[in-house]
Design brief:
By secondary structure, the protein is of the alpha+beta class. The protein has a domain of about 80 residues. Helix content is about 15%, strand content about 40%. It is built from 1 helix and 8 strands; from the N terminus they run H-E-E-E-E-E-E-E-E. The strands form 2 sheets. A 4-stranded mixed beta sheet has the order 4-1-7-8, with no helix packed on it. Strand 5 and strand 6 form a beta hairpin. It is elongated. The relative contact order is 0.19.
Length: about 120
């Protein structure tokens, strides 16, 4: 019988795949690193959104400083829209622009109405 065509004999090996016990240091370390990674990536992905109704017939801008980064929002004329700012926190400082706000910070979830270049909480 040709060895190339013959069916191989089954060989049993006494090794079994085993899982480490749930309280082993390896499992604990893996669980800790997974949890730390999830917390770190969630914290860095925070964003804030504001809703703005611009009743003026001109485009306005708002200049923000969010966790050290600059952001410029352009608010379209005669529209209502949501604007998102990405930051490591849920608020940004207002540092300039063509709209006068009654506050120095924009916070996630706020709603504003702009009329005659002035914003008021909506």
């Amino acid at each position: 019988m040709d060895h190339r065509t013959a069916a191989p004999e089954s060989i049993e090996i006494g090794l079994e795949k085993t899982r480490p016990p749930a309280d082993s240091p390896r499992v604990k370390k893996t669980a800790f690193l997974t949890a730390a990674f999830l917390v770190a990536t969630t914290a860095s992905a925070i964003a804030g959104t504001i809703r703005v109704y611009n009743s003026d017939s001109k485009v306005h801008t708002v200049e923000l400083k969010c966790s050290g980064s600059s952001k410029k929002i352009e608010i379209r004329a005669s529209t209502t829209a949501s604007y998102t700012f990405h930051s490591s926190s849920k608020e940004c400082d207002i540092v300039g622009g063509s709209v006068e706000f009654p506050t120095k910070k924009l916070v996630n979830g706020q709603k504003w109405k702009i009329k005659n270049g002035k914003a008021k909480a909506n």
